[in-house]
Amino acid sequence: MTRWLPLLLLTAATTASADPRAPILSAARIKADVKTLSADDFHGRGPTQPGEAITLAFLEKRFAALGLRPAGDAGYRQTVPLLRWTRETARFDLSLGGKTEALRPGVEIAASSRIVGTTTLDRAGVVFVGYGVVEPRLGYDPYRGVDVRGKVVVALAGDPDVEAGRDLGFGGRASSPAARTKLAEAQKHGAAAFFQIHDTFPSSYPWLQLANSDAVPGYALDTGSVPPAFGIRGTLRNDIGVALLRQGGLDYAAAKRAAQRADFRGVALQGVALSADVRTSLDRAVSHNIVGILPGTDPAAGSILYGAHWDAYGENAFDPPADRIRNGAVDNGTGTATLLEIARAFAGAPRLRRSVVFALWTAEEKGLLGATWYADHPALPLATTAAQFNLDPHVVLGRTRDLELIGVGRTPLEQDLARVAAAQGLRIVPEENTEAGWACRASTSARGAIWCAGVPLRASGSGRATMPNAITRPATRSNRAGT
Ligand SMILES: [Zn+2]
Question: Which residues surround ligand 1, an ion (CB under 5 A)?
């Protein structure tokens, strides 16, 4: 249960002149709140679903009991307007060598379209573009000399060197920013649809996770206009992708090796065609962040921000009835409960010089939407927000001695973290699964986009410094002695 202590003590250390007493946290209270938040009567805390009202009421009551100053547009609630795309129907037929079979959505294919109405593919040709990454600096352009207009583009997961075993210029095993532009490249070159072939290692999540979320509505912030939509996009189960390449005369492993080279060019897969009908509707929806402030003693001193997303995946009508509720105890019941406990500790301690903002985000699982909205509508100016601490989620492990730091080199707070960790006997170790791109996935602010573009952040107090998630690893055989 030491996982949250480094974060909290770091705060105490950085504000030591104003507050010599470190707040005391209670594991028992955190546990009780996790239990409450993940109970079935919270319906899995799905934004815009019945679980939202119940969750918000619980969180508001707790903020009020702590005496936090409401900092939303309606009490503690900060309205987050959303666009919601719902897939009404979907049909996919894959032809391999003249034989046509249906691909079952949520089983063999996970796909959607944000074009309102019906999007149709009628025996569209398929082009394999390797990793689908265009990087002129390194000479990579799989689209060179290949016509994908009106066709289906199929790409490998990851980037050219995530599995190559050496750094080809894309950051080695780390997931590169270039890999996040695949869809845009397919769109730019006039493709009608884009699919990635699922592969667990470079994707860093299993197929089932993706398949289970198929047909869950897609969301975006409603900023007054509907963004232009690409055609059908999605992911193919690995064996489907492998079969499709084989029909086109390509061996999956050999195709990967070929696509790791800068001279790789896209290949039109002979004898492969895809037909599809996807009907999508769009409506507007509203969700809410919960934001409260513990005012500091010096209004000119700025603030620090604690954030955690309250949302989970809610109820999923596509699962069998016995398993409809995805309770989200760990992700992110733990972070939400810990934020409540940190707020309780601060509220009971002498006031800091800086104000402390406590924010519980909505729609993190829909693409960091609540946090992004906050970054554009902050309760206190970002320019004087010295640090953000993100709680999402706590890895359920035993006692640890390693503290794994994600997104190394992006904030000067690392030096404080190293000092506090050392005082607790924790060892900071390099990020292990860099291909997972956690620094981008877990940054709860729009500033995360700056990280993901690979730009290091500089000064604290610039409003851009955010704290990377730190996760702890279980003590290994070699370091367990003495714990
Ligand atoms: Zn989470």
Answer: 331-332, 392
